[in-house]
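TEACHING EXERCISE
Course module: macromolecular assemblies
Task: Read the component lines below, then compare them to the predicted structure of the full complex.
Student: A.B.
Group: 4
Components provided:
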Amino acid sequence: MGKMIEVPLPDFGDGDAADLEAVVSCWPVTVGTALQTGDDLLEIVTDKASFVVPCPCTGILREQRVFEEDRVRTGDIIAVVEEA
Amino acid sequence: MPAETDMTKNRPTPPKFPPWIRQSWPQSGAVDEVRDLLRELGLNTVCRSAQCPNQGECWSHRTATFMILGEVCSRNCAFCGVGTGTPAAPDEGEPARVAEAIARLGLRHSVITSVTRDDLPDGGAGQFAAVIQAIRGRCPGVTIEVLTPDFGGDADAIRLVTEAKPEVFAHNVETVPRLHRLLRDARASYERSLGVLKTAREALPESCYVKSGLMVGCGEGEDEVWATLEDLHRAGCDAVTIGQYLKPRGGRAEVAAFITPEQFVRYEKKALETGFVFAMAGPFVRSSYHADELLTGTFRRPAAAKT
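Instructor-supplied answer key:
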C-alpha cells in the first residue's frame, strides 16, 4: 500500500487567502481513478473564472474531501491520493 | 432578495462560465516564491488586487505586474476590483524595492501600473519616473512598460513619465465611448484617455511604443469596437489588447456577454488591419498578459518601419 497524501488546495498567491474564495463545481474523476501528476483532479469556480486543480502526484484517488457547491479556501484538504 | 442568492447556504451561487473561461489553478512552487518575495518587500500587484485569473499562470513563470502608489484607488470604476478610498502618501522606498523585486525575479521585461491618485498634484507621475529610474539603475537591460492612469489629463504629468523613456507607455481606454459613463468613474472620459495616448505618442521617442487596452463583453457592439480601434490608432497607439470583462468581487458592472474565442480572433485580425503593429485578443488577455511579446516576440517592429 502506497503512502496516503492529503492534497490541499494550493495557494493562489494570496497567502492568507482572505480575499479569494472558490466553490467546488465538479469532480472530473471518481474515487479509485489512477492519476498522473498534473491530471485534472477538481474543478472549482471563483468570481472570475472556472479553474481546474491539477493532481500534485501520481497515484490513485482514494478520497474526496469536498463536494459540489462547497466553499473552499487555500490550504483546505480537498482529496486523499494513494501515491504510486 | 437577490435572485443570485442561495438562501440554503446563505451565500451567492457561483457564477456560470462558458467552457473557454477556464484556467489552471497554480501548483505550489514558483507561485509561493513570488508571493513570499512580494510580501518581504511590501509590494502590491494588480494580479492580486484585481483578482486576475491569470495570476497562477503568470506567477508560475515568475512574472508579476507591480502596482505602485498603494492599493487604494481614488476612483471607483464599476468594472474594477481594486479597493477605493483615501490613499496613503507615496512610499519613497517603493521604487528601490520594485527594482529589487525585478532583479530577484530575474525579469527581462517589467510592467508597472498604479492606482489612480487624484489626490496627488502630479497624479503619481513622479513615482512612475522614480520607479523607471530605479529599475534602470538596478536592472540594466530590463525593458520597462508602464500602464498609467490618466493623470487627470495633465500633459506635464504625462511628460514626466515619458521623459523617463519607458520602452512601452500604456494607458487603457477600457471600453467603447458609449459605455464609459456606465463602467468608469465620472472623472475619466474616453476623450481624455485618447488625449493621454496622443500626448505620450508625441512626447516619446519613435523607438518607444504606445499601447492601450479594452474590455469586451460589456454590452458593446462589434461596430463600436471597430470604431474604438480606429480612434486608438489615430491617437498614435502602436499596440492594443482586447480581453473579456470578468466581474470581480465587489464589482458593480455585470458581464453582458461572453465573447467567443472566434470573435476574439476577428477582433485581433481587425486590429492588425487597422494598422496596429501588435494586437492581442482573447478571453484571458489583459493589458500586461504576455506583455514582453511586444518587444521580444514575432510582433517586434523592424527599425526600418519606425519612420
